[in-house]
Amino acid sequence: MTTQDSKAVKAIEILLVEDNQADVRLTIKAFEIGKLRNKLSAVEDGEQAIAFLRREGSYNDATRPDLILLDLNMPNMDGREVLAEIKNDPDLLTIPVIVLTTSEAEQDILQSYQLHANSYITKPVTMERFIEVISSAVEDYWINIVKLPPRE
Question: If the chain, 152 residues long, is cut into consecutive pieces of 10 residues, what is the mean pLDDT of each piece?
């Protein structure tokens, strides 16, 4: 029996729902610096997120994500509404949702979990810490440890 030097990690599809373009760029940079080999798609608001998930309009050929990173405070349809819509849709409810937001408000945390968020992460302020959190939360936990449901 031989020992493998490194285990093959399956790349996953991640949907980032974020209206702040600076945070989108920061997340992309965190994936690059952290050498995360996953496919990251981004949409700017909740309405676009639901269209992406349901493969409607310009998103008709979108790949179903394995994981969603969701900001709470967005125009048109905020993250709470998106989370409620996802978790009330039998076709989407198995997709894990990580709330990734600047809010540390207890009400936002409580409401996110009541709406069945899978985890809640407050965005770190520094680039270094942001990369560390993204690497730990996404790569280490959600990819290497957790068994994600199959894409439907």
Answer: 45 92 86 76 96 97 95 93 97 96 95 96 86 79 78 71
